[in-house]
Every structure is written in C-alpha cells, then in structure tokens.
Amino acid sequence: MSDNQDLNLSFLYEIADGSNEFIVESIDMFMQQTPELLHIIGTAISAKDWPVAATSAHKLKPNLGFFGMLESQSTMQEIEHLAKTGAPDIDLITDKFNAVRTVLTGNLRKLLQVKAEAEAQL
User: Fold this and answer.
1) Which of 2-6, 12-16, 32-36, 87-91 is predicted with the least confidence, judged by mean pLDDT?
2) Theoretical Cys-Cys bridge with 83: which of 26, 54, 59, 70, CB 3.0 to 4.6 Å?
3) In this structure, are residues 29 and 108 in contact, taking their beta carbons and an 8 Å threshold?
4) Number of Cα atoms under 13 Å in the Cβ half of residue 35
5) Helix, strand, coil proportions of the chain in percent (round to 5)?
6) pLDDT by residue (tens digit) across 19-48?
7) DSSP 4
8) Is residue 3 included in any domain, yes or no?
9) Distances in Å between the alpha carbon of 117 and those of 15, 26, 32, 52, 110?
C-alpha cells in the first residue's frame, strides 16, 4: 500500500447531491462501523480465527469503496481471500492488515474534518 490517504470522496459528494446532512450521516456511519470492524479483524487474525477475519473483512469492503478507498478495498479483498484459505501466511496477512489499518486511521481523521465542514453548513 502506498503512503497516500487512499481517499476519494467524489462518489459520496455525487450521491449526496448537495446534502450536507447526507454527508454527515454517511461519515457518522463509517466512523461507527470501521473501528469496530478493524478491531474484530485484528483480534481474529491474532487468534487465527479465519472465518471471523474473512467475514469481517467482507463486511468492511463496501464501506471502503463508498469512500473511494480503492487501494484499501483491494487489500481488504486480499485479506478476506487469505483468511478464507484457512491457514494463511500469518506474517503476510498481518502485514496487509496493518497497512490498511494505518491508512484507515489517517482517513478517519480526515473524514472528521470533512464532517465538521459539512456540519458547519447545516
């Protein structure tokens, strides 16, 4: 994964069609779900609970796509696939997960700024 933020909000803005309320609600939902899913995936990888890791990675992928995090979404797809194999290379899946988590942590901070800007216009 690259060091960029992997965040493109053009799809969000397009479907929001000028609604700051929609932007705020969408970001709120992402902010509630993403940290929880990241925690579940990280815990499942540590415990080698591959079905939970795969299921949670699968749940997170559409959210990443919605916010234009296509590189992170692709890496999460790889994590899901690796977990579905049942006995993945633990170092590889851990490295991929840590890379996505790092990018998403930065994106969560950026989304808080975007949310604050949208709220200021309500």
Assistant:
1) 2-6
2) 54
3) no
4) 10
5) 80, 0, 20
6) 999 999 999 999 999 999 999 999 999 999
7) S
8) no
9) 18, 14, 19, 36, 11
Query: Is the per-residue pLDDT at 101 higher than 80?
Result: yes
Q: Specify the CATH number for the domain of residue 91.
A: 1.20.120
In a domain, 1, yes or no: no
- Identify the domain containing residue 15 by its residue range: 10-120
| Cα(56)–Cα(38) distance, integer angstroms | 8
Provide the pLDDT for residue 88.
79
In a domain, 5, yes or no: no
How many domains are there within the chain? 1
The dihedral formed by the CA atoms of 60, 103, 68 and 61, expressed in degrees to the nearest 10: -10
DSSP string covering 62-120, please?
A: HHHHHTT-HHHHHHHHHHHHHHHTSS--HHHHHHHHHHHHHHHHHHHHHHHHHHHHHHH
